[in-house]
């Protein structure tokens, strides 16, 4: 089974790096037969919407390199890019992961999220500023946002995310990223979706 994950944010917030760290964590877990990760291609600039994609497969090679238009899991690391179309793109029984200062039920009500979607939220921007996980005044929300997936993506644990962060960022930059990731998970709020179509 292939799980398709889309990571969306703005240029400079690390969506591409986050998607790559997720793929690396899945690979390091040894729970997947194949993983891929790649960004949208174009002239993205700082502050412009950016999308990156990760696919993980439990039982077969991944051959496609197409962009993911209907993800199983949508990760949005900057709430200001949210659109109705982006939310509607999530597959039935899919998962919506959001960096926000709102609780899960507030997000459900505000954006009219269907009952079949699982909604996962944590106020990562706040924790980044609080613990000074900031570069040039910009909160580095990507690694903590990706860490939230350990609650919804079977086969990827926090230990795998931590290992992937260290491999990607190096020892010196990893400690603070890991600390904020752990805090983001502690402060997580989840609205479980009601599965439709007989899916368990």
Total DSSP helices: 7
- Average pLDDT over all residues: 93
How many beta strands in the DSSP annotation? Answer: 9
* Helix content bin: 25-40%
Topology as H/E string? EHEEEHEHEHEEHHHE
Low-confidence stretches: none
Strand order of the largest sheet: 2-3-1-4-5-6-9
Can you describe what's shown?
The chain is an alpha/beta fold. The chain has one domain: Pyruvate-ferredoxin Oxidoreductase, domain 3 (3-Layer(aba) Sandwich), CATH 3.40.920.10. The protein has helices spanning 15-29, 84-88, 104-111, 124-130, 142-147, 158-169, 171-186, and strands spanning 2-10, 34-39, 49-57, 73-76, 95-99, 118-122, 134-135, 138-139, 189-191. The strands form 2 sheets. A 7-stranded mixed beta sheet has the order 2-3-1-4-5-6-9, sandwiched between helices. The radius of gyration is 16 Å and the shape is globular. 44% of the residues are buried.
Summarize the structure.
This protein is an alpha/beta fold and 200 residues long.
Itemize the secondary structure elements and their pairings.
Elements: E1 2-10, H1 15-29, E2 34-39, E3 49-57, E4 73-76, H2 84-88, E5 95-99, H3 104-111, E6 118-122, H4 124-130, E7 134-135, E8 138-139, H5 142-147, H6 158-169, H7 171-186, E9 189-191
Parallel strand pairs: 1-4, 4-5, 5-6
Antiparallel strand pairs: 1-3, 2-3, 6-9, 7-8
Summary tags:
about 200 residues, two-stranded antiparallel sheet, globular, Pyruvate-ferredoxin Oxidoreductase, domain 3, alpha/beta, seven-stranded mixed sheet, 7 helices, about 35% helix
């Amino acid at each position: 089974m292939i799980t398709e994950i889309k990571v969306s944010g703005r240029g400079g917030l690390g969506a591409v790096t986050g998607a790559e760290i997720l793929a690396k964590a899945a690979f390091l877990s040894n729970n997947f037969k194949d993983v891929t990760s790649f960004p949208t291609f174009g002239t993205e600039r700082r502050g412009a919407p950016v999308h990156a994609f990760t696919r993980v497969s439990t039982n077969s090679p991944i051959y496609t390199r197409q962009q993911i238009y209907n993800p199983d899991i949508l990760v949005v690391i900057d709430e200001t890019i949210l659109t109705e179309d982006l939310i509607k793109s999530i597959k039935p029984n899919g998962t919506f992961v959001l960096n926000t200062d709102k609780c899960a039920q507030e997000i459900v009500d505000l954006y009219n999220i269907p009952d079949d979607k699982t909604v996962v939220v944590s106020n990562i921007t706040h924790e980044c500023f609080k613990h000074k996980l900031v570069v040039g005044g910009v909160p580095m929300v990507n690694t903590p946002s990706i860490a939230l997936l350990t609650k919804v993506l079977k086969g990827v644990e926090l230990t795998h995310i931590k290992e992937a962060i260290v491999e990607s960022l190096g020892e010196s930059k990893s400690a603070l990223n890991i600390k904020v990731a752990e805090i983001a998970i502690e402060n997580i709020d989840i609205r479980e979706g009601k599965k439709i179509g007989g899916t368990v």
